[in-house]
Specification:
By secondary structure, the chain is α/β, with parallel strands linked by helices. It has seven helices and eight strands. An eight-stranded mixed barrel has the order 1-2-3-4-5-6-7-8, surrounded by four helices. It is globular, with a radius of gyration of 18 Å. The N and C termini lie far apart (about 55 Å).
C-alpha cells in the first residue's frame, strides 16, 4: 500500500509554509526496504506507467484535501518524465477531470517536470504551455543537474525553477555556492520565473539561499517529509472601518 508524505516549501523571509510537495510513501511492515518510486519500474508499457503516475497524483490530491492545515497553500506534484513523451497533447486534461471530482482546482497545483537537456525542447515546452493554459503552475525540477541552459529555460517558460541540490554546496564550498546561486537566481527572476532552493540541510546553506535571493526554500532543515501538512498561514482580513 502507498501513502503520501508532505514536505513544506517556505518563503525566503519566513518559516511558515506556502505549500507542500507530495512524496510517494510505502505503508506497512518492511516499507523502508522498498523505495516507493520503484513501482514505476514495474510498468509493462507507457500506458501502464501513465496510469500509475496519474493514480499517484490522485492519491496525493485526496490526501492533501484531508489535511486541515493546508487551506490556502499549494500542492506540488511530480510528473513522471515518460508521461511527457508518451502523451502527445492535451496535457492536464485527464488530471483536471480527476481534480474536479476531488474538489481541488488546478490553480492550487504546482506540477514539477524534469528536463535532462538532451531531448528537443519543443515537446516539453508544448506540454508546459498546455498545463499552464489549464490553470496549473509548472516548475522545472533539479535545474542545474543535467543542464543550466538559460536560453532553453526561457523556451520552456515554466512558472518556477527548482535549483538542483548540487548548486547549494557543502561545507567548505559555500562561498562558491553563494556566487553561483546569486547569479542563477538573478537570471531566473529576470526571466520572470520564481526560484526555489531545495535540499537545504544546515544553517549555512539556509543563509546562502536567503542571501542569493531565491523566492522559496525547501529541505530537511526546514521540514522533513511527514504524514501531515504544517499549518499554512491564512491571509489576514482587513479590518472594517470604525
Amino acid at each position: 500500500m502507498f501513502g503520501t508524505r508532505f514536505q513544506p516549501i517556505v518563503g525566503r523571509a519566513g518559516s511558515h509554509p506556502a505549500g507542500h510537495e507530495a512524496h510517494l510513501h510505502v505503508l506497512g511492515a518492511g516499507a523502508a526496504a522498498a523505495p516507493a518510486q520503484a513501482v514505476f519500474l514495474e510498468a509493462r508499457d507507457d500506458a501502464e506507467l501513465v496510469h500509475l503516475d496519474r493514480m499517484a497524483r490522485t492519491l496525493h490530491a485526496l490526501n492533501f484535501l484531508l489535511e486541515r492545515e493546508q487551506h490556502g497553500g499549494f500542492l506540488a506534484l511530480n510528473v513522471h518524465p515518460q508521461l511527457i513523451r508518451a502523451v502527445r497533447d492535451h496535457h492536464g486534461h485527464v488530471f483536471e477531470t480527476v481534480l474536479a471530482r476531488c474538489g481541488l482546482t488546478p490553480d492550487r497545483v504546482l506540477l514539477e517536470l524534469t528536463d535532462d537537456g538532451f531531448e528537443p525542447a519543443g515537446p516539453l515546452a508544448a506540454a508546459i504551455a498546455e498545463y499552464r493554459e489549464r490553470g496549473y503552475r509548472v516548475a522545472i525540477d533539479n535545474f542545474g543537474r543535467h543542464t543550466a541552459d538559460l536560453e532553453r529555460l526561457a523556451q520552456l517558460a515554466p512558472d518556477v525553477v527548482k535549483l538542483d541540490r548540487s548548486l547549494i554546496g557543502h561545507a567548505g564550498h559555500l562561498s562558491l555556492a553563494k556566487r553561483v546561486m546569486t547569479e542563477m537566481s538573478g537570471e531566473i527572476r529576470r526571466l520572470g520565473m520564481g526560484a526555489v532552493c531545495q535540499c537545504i540541510e544546515n544553517p549555512l546553506q539556509l543563509e546562502v539561499a536567503r542571501e542569493a535571493g531565491v523566492d522559496w526554500l525547501q529541505g530537511h532543515l526546514l521540514g522533513r517529509p511527514a504524514a501531515h501538512c504544517l499549518p499554512v498561514p491564512r491571509p489576514r482580513r482587513p479590518r472594517a472601518a470604525a
